[in-house]
């Protein structure tokens, strides 16, 4: 999972994810958890957000590959999770959005 375009990823994020998620380390959680530094973090582990039990039980550590399958179909990848979103179908969009999330993690 290399070569994503951070700028394009940001645009998609702003359109599709930012109403529920922030990537600003100083921002509060929205309807979804803050995604700053999500790549490399254990799923459902950020403090202060009330995750579904599906996430709380998960031992998954987010990396570009599993984020991509998650975004392609959240409910299929983590059954009975609470993210009311489906689905980021275009592999190019997924690559770009993950590049954006990773860039924000550094
Ligand atoms: C309508 C609101 C909403 C939208 C839109 C949304 N999400 Fe979420 N997201 C959530 C919620 C709520 C959760 C927590 C789910 C749970 O606890 O089961 C979540 C969880 C996540 C997680 C897991 C975070 C962690 O710390 O484990 C990731 C990654 C994520 N979302 C990425 C995205 C991306 C990228 C997009 C845009 C393509 C997106 N989400 C769109 C609400 C949303």
Automatic annotation (TrEMBL):
<dbReference type="InterPro" id="IPR036909">
    <property type="entry name" value="Cyt_c-like_dom_sf"/>
</dbReference>
<dbReference type="GO" id="GO:0009055">
    <property type="term" value="F:electron transfer activity"/>
</dbReference>
<dbReference type="InterPro" id="IPR009056">
    <property type="entry name" value="Cyt_c-like_dom"/>
</dbReference>
<comment type="similarity">
    <text>Belongs to the cytochrome c family.</text>
</comment>
<keyword id="KW-0408">Iron</keyword>
<dbReference type="GO" id="GO:0005758">
    <property type="term" value="C:mitochondrial intermembrane space"/>
</dbReference>
<keyword id="KW-0249">Electron transport</keyword>
<feature type="domain" description="Cytochrome c">
    <location>
        <begin position="4"/>
        <end position="105"/>
    </location>
</feature>
<protein>
    <submittedName>
        <fullName>Cytochrome c</fullName>
    </submittedName>
</protein>
<keyword id="KW-0496">Mitochondrion</keyword>
<dbReference type="GO" id="GO:0020037">
    <property type="term" value="F:heme binding"/>
</dbReference>
<comment type="function">
    <text>Electron carrier protein. The oxidized form of the cytochrome c heme group can accept an electron from the heme group of the cytochrome c1 subunit of cytochrome reductase. Cytochrome c then transfers this electron to the cytochrome oxidase complex, the final protein carrier in the mitochondrial electron-transport chain.</text>
</comment>
<keyword id="KW-0479">Metal-binding</keyword>
<keyword id="KW-0813">Transport</keyword>
<keyword id="KW-0679">Respiratory chain</keyword>
<keyword id="KW-0349">Heme</keyword>
<dbReference type="GO" id="GO:0046872">
    <property type="term" value="F:metal ion binding"/>
</dbReference>
<dbReference type="Pfam" id="PF00034">
    <property type="entry name" value="Cytochrom_C"/>
</dbReference>
<dbReference type="InterPro" id="IPR002327">
    <property type="entry name" value="Cyt_c_1A/1B"/>
</dbReference>
